[in-house]
Each structure stands twice: as C-alpha cells, then as structure tokens.
Amino acid sequence: MRKLYFILIFGNAFSFLCQGPERLIPCQAVTVFSINNTDLLQKLSVDEWISYDFMDEIHQEIFDQSTENKSVKEAGLDFDKRLSLFYGKTSNYEITGFTFGIKDRVALFKIFDDFEEINTEYKNITVYQSLFNNLLIQNNNGLLIRIEPMEAYLNKITDSVWYARGNVSPFYEPDENELIFDDTTFQIENSFEILEKTYFELRDSVEFELQKHYYSYIIDDLLLNNRNLFSQDSTFRELLTHESPGVFFMDNSRNIDRANSLWYLKTILPTLFLDVQELYEGNIITGDLTLKTSSIQFDLTAKYGSALGSIYTEMNDAKFDKNILKYIKKDQPAYFTYTINLRSAYEKTFEVLVPLLSKAHDPDVSFNLLMLKLGNELINKDALFDAYKGGLFATFNGIQKVKTKKITFVYDEQTFEYSEIETETEEDMPILTVGFSTKRQDIPEMILDHFSKITSKFEKKEGYWVFQKAIFDAAPLYMLNSNGLFIITNDRELAENHRQGYGDEALTKNQIKALKHSGSISGFADISKVAQKFPTDFIEPSQQKLMDFLQSKSGKVTLISGATTKKSTSLHLNYSYNDNEISSKHFLDLLNTIYLLTR
Amino acid sequence: MNFLKLIFFCLPLTLSSCIEIIDDLSLELDGSGCLKFTVNLSASKVKMNSVLSLDSLNGKRVPKIGEIEQQIFKFKEILQKEKGINSVKTDFNNIDFILKISIEFANISDLQSSIKTAISQVSLVENLSEVDSKWISWDGNTLERLVPKIIEQSLKNDKESDLDLLKTGSYTCISRMPKIISKTSNLNCKLNPSRTASMLRVNTLDLKLNPSLLKHTITLSPE
User: Fold this and answer.
1) Pairing relationship of beta strands B170-176 and B20-27 according to DSSP bridges
2) Which of A110, A186, A238, A406 could form a disulfide with A425 if both were Cys (CB 3.0 to 4.6 A apart)?
3) Residues on chain A touching B3 (C-beta within 8 angstroms)
4) Can you give the pLDDT at residue A17?
5) In terms of Cα–Cα distance, which of B119, B112, B41 is closest to B76?
6) Rounded distance between C-alpha atoms, residue A55 and residue A71, angstroms
C-alpha cells in the first residue's frame, strides 16, 4: 500500500513537473498554432526559422538593439517542448502571446533583458514585466502575454468619463468667426492644445487601468483557478496528442470575427446569424500539418453542434454543376468551385433559427425575426433560388492587355496651342471570371435589359452583354448567360470566342474526376503562376507581405472538401513541390502562409 | 484577411505610371502674364482609381476624391488672395484625372511666392524646402526656366520599378513671349515659325535621371 502511495505521489509530482508549456495557454485564447519543435528544428536552422512571420512576436521581444547579433539559439529556449502561439479577442480586449519551454533561465534573461521581476501573489510563479508584455515562468515553462483593450471599447469608456466631467469634445475646432479676435486667438488655440492633451492623458490612464483589470482577470483564471485551454477543452487536449509537426486550433463559438468565415449565412440572413450564439456551440476547427514526400498536407476538421450540423448537411447535399467544367481551362493558373444547395440551406436555417430567435427578448433580434418571417412569406423563393442555386466558380487567367481610353494632348506646330483628344490605350489587368449556376436565365437578362435602357454603358452584343468602363471607369466587364450559368468576367476572349466553353482546352478527364469527387469546395492554384503575376503594388502591407512571400515559392496547391456529417466537415489542402528544398522548409512556408491568412 | 477584398482590390491594378505635365507660360514685357499648368493622369486612371478605392497605402491614408477637390478649391482660394495674383481658374476632371490650373499674375516673383504660400497652406508637401526655390526668372529680356523643385523631388521619390513606365510620361515646357526670340540655350528647344513661342519636351524618365534637361534660357531680340 505504501508503495502504491509512493507511486501515486511520485507520479503526480512527476506529471506536474513534466507539464508542458501548453498548460499556460489561457482559456481566452481562440486561435492557437502549436509547433512540435523537435521534429522541425532538427531539420532546419534556427536562423532560418526565426525569419518567418509567425515568429514575429517572439522575434520582436527577443531582439532589440541591446541584443544584436544574438539568436534564438542563445535564448535559453527548450526546443524539445512545444512552442504555441495564441490569439483571442472579445469585444472588450485582445490577447496575444506564446508559450515555450525554458532550458537555461540565465541565458533567457540575457535576451529578455527589458523585463523586470515584480512581486506576485501567485505561488510557484515568477512574474516579469516589460513596457508592453508580461512574462510568467512556472517551472521550466514560459508564457509571454500581451493584453490590450479594444480601441472602440477604450474610446467609449474614455468618452463617457470625459463628458461626465463636463468637458467639450477634444476634437472641437472653433469656426473662423470665433478666431477673428486677435487678442484671444493665441489663448484659444493654446487652450485647445491643452484640452486635447488632457483627453489623451485620460485615455492612457483608462487604457492602463483596463489592461491591469483584464490582466488580473485572465491570469487569476489561469493560475488561481487553474483554468487553461488545455484543461478546459478536450478537443484541444486531444489535438496536442497528434504526432503531426504542427497543429491549428480555433474555437469558432468564441470567435467574434466568425462572420468572415460563414459568409454564405450572411448572404441568406444578413445580420440575424450573429444574434444566434447557440448556433455556434461546439463549432471548433482543428487542423494538422503533415509532412509527406514532396508534399505537405493540411487537414482541417470543423466540428459543430446539431443546429449548425443540420444546416451544413442540407447545404452540402448538392449536385456539382457539370456546365462549370466547360469554363475552366486545363492550364488555368487558379480556379475555385463551390457547390451548395442554397434552397435547402435556407429552409433548414429558417427552421433552426426561428425557434432560437423566438426565445430572445431583445427588440433588435425580435425585429430581425419579424423581417425574416415576412421575407419568408412574401418573397418568391422558387424564383430566388432558381436564379441563384448556390453553385459557383471563379478562375484567374493571368494578366492580359485590356483596352482602355486615355486623353492625349495634341499640339499645333504653328502656335504650340494644344487640345485634348481621346485615344485608345492598353493596360495590364488580371483576368478574373466568376460564374453562378442559374435556372432562371431570364432574370439576369431582365435586369441587364433594364440597365441598358437607363445607360448606354450597357450594350447587348451577339450572345453577351458588355458594361463599358465598368472597372474603375476604364475597362469593360462582360456578362454571359449560357449553359445554365451567368458569368461575369473581364476576359474579352472568353466573351467573344468561348461563350460555349473552352472545348478541347477545358479541364482533362482526370482533373474533372478529381473535381467531382471533391465535395462542396474545390480549388487549385499554381503558386508560381498566380503569385508572380498578381499585381501587388496597392494591396495592404500585411497582404503585400503574404504575396511577397508566395512569390518566392513554387509548387501547386489543391484544396478539396471531404465528407460532411451532422457533426463535422473536413477540408484538405495539399501543397506539392518538386524542388530540392527540404520538406521542413516547405512545411514552415505553408504554416507561415496559413498564419498570415488567419491572423 | 478578407480574401475577396484582396482579389477585388487587385483586379484592375496596373503599373502604368504615365503622367503628362504641360507647363505653359505666357509672358508680357512688364513681367506680367499667365501660367497654365496641366497634369494629365488619364493614362493611369485605372491605377488612380485603384489607389482611391483603398483606405490607406503604405501606411498613409488615401484621400477621397471629394477631399482632393476640396484641396484644389482651397489652393485656388488661397492663391487668388495673394499679392500680385489677378485671377486663378482651376478645372479638375475626376473621371480622366486631368487637373488644369490657370494663374494670371502681375510679375514672376509674386507668382512664385504665391504658389509657395498656397502649397504650404494646403500641406501638399511635408518638406517646404522642396518648394523653396525659384524655377522661373525674368530680367525683361531673358527668361530662364528650370523644372520646379516639387516635381523634381516627386520624380526622384518614385520607385525603381516604375522606371520603364516613366518613359511614357512627359513634361512639356512652353514659353510664349511678347517679342521675337533671338536664341535659346537648349538645343532641344523648339521654336514656332513666328519665333514667339518655344516648346521643350522631355520624357519623365530622362527628367528623373537628369533634371537639368529642362533647364533653358530664352533671350529676346532687342528689336
């Protein structure tokens, strides 16, 4: 018996000491990337590893001017333990951070030299703070965490305190008449500067207090209540048992930005679905990144509750529209198909949502419910869902010269006077096509016919429509209504010469077979053809970074969805390459792309 | 990231950074005259429209078309209140992106100082020293012209990748004189048959590489 107690006590102590850093991930984390360091780092130099975007947080923290020429190798990190990056957001605050193992604490603080130890009431925990971050160390595990109040919430609190004190708007500017009096002008201007400064001082104080408040709330929950994502979420726990080098976790039921991922629901019910928290219960998305010979696979599984499950099942009960195949070329740089049964999805969503919304007492939700019921009664659903059935495709066809107009000045050689003339010019433009399956070709035809009577920019040609100067008042857009598809494109070649499809140039039998078996979502991209041709000059800096990154890659990406059940659906992304780079390098490339796309 | 947004932002983007500038000066013997300045971006209107559709570019806020029109109006208002400025007309074609400014002035010195004031007050440039220079001088018989510093700086700041496309742009400098022109210092300067006007045209790439290409002196005949 004594032996048994010893084993139990020793076992518990051992398991406590051997707990991984993942147990320091707070429950408030919504998204987690976890990397099984050993597998990867043995195959790749750390110097290369730290150059990735997903290492930015760590990189920024570790490297500053005082630690120049040092590397992660010297940071005292334990690369035999998992390194996990997490992110979470509520309407009040945002948390970001990472957890890691520590091998050499002295070395760690040579790098983390901006941190100062502070007193703490948490047992067995050492807490350090820098200007923006908090570093908590428990045994040989570290948690670096940053908590920031959401800007809108911070402004709301600051404004309420500011105005409650009887202040005028800090952004108030007197009109010119008020500034006419010379003697007082200087004083008025000066007083406004002070007013604004005071407001921002108040805002800083509120921010600091909110940070402190949410920090205590999150860390108390983590360390005093022992509530962390690992202990609270069985799916996350199970995910970390996977042997794959990288795993991804997102709890969509707590993701306040989920509207982006369920755009089709938003299409059917513009605001309603956000009111229905219950719908998202159990909606957790997990993914495994797996290394294979000359390819990397990313397998994503979305689990959901019965309500969302029943909608997904109905939605995915759709037949692939074969007509789409005619409009995708076999050497298309990128294409995407999406097949859903929108009518069934709508009916099921209505059936699921009405009882859920009926329970709510909120006037806005109640009004939305009334609108939904009225819409259901008054709208001709047969016409609506025959007009747009739910199947669509999109293609990228590289860059082509597109004719546009420009104004040129011509000069009189006698007088050098000049006048304007309109001339044709050609500009490079990415060629994109989007097509929808429709049973009611008369409806888009009716709309276009109507537009053509309002403006001469809409012209009916032989078998297609042109909307002149549609794109930024320069390039035309073509609309085709053929083979049960309504197609919108800026590809003149398609509109003029391939209205019935690409014939022999269309997808091969093998490509078609793969497409048909791919479920509701299917996609293909030749990275070198797409990323290198995509114009990136005016995209946002974060997107620019992603495109720059992809432009240095080669390989092919295929995306297919798997079976959909009432409990889950899956998505598989395969990145194949045929160069000589080691697979772990490609692995981190893909991981970085996913990170950039989801952050 | 909203991927749809990314796709639609990129749909019409081109890099044809083609700008046509006409700097047309009519001068009287007393130094008064009229400056007509035209900036034609119609060959880059797809690019212009794409930029205007963005909220920010390279970390800087992109103004809305209405704000640009307001700035032009403000520029006109300030300029016409300045000493020595008789009238100012502006015309902005926001479809083809052509801006025309016509300024009637009492003398060259007033013209240049007024433009400097107006530019600084509408905050068109961050560094005022860029406009703190004279690009036209007139002594009653000789007119000397340079490329305005603000344009020289703008061209210099252009990215390397735009070099080829700058070849398609041009800067045309026209000088209409009250008397017959006896000589010009720049061999590329073209005179009209009656020798009362000169025209010097340089492509924007050459101008970027060598701003002195536009430098020229026009000397009038004593008769």
Assistant:
1) parallel
2) A406
3) 597
4) 43
5) B119
6) 12
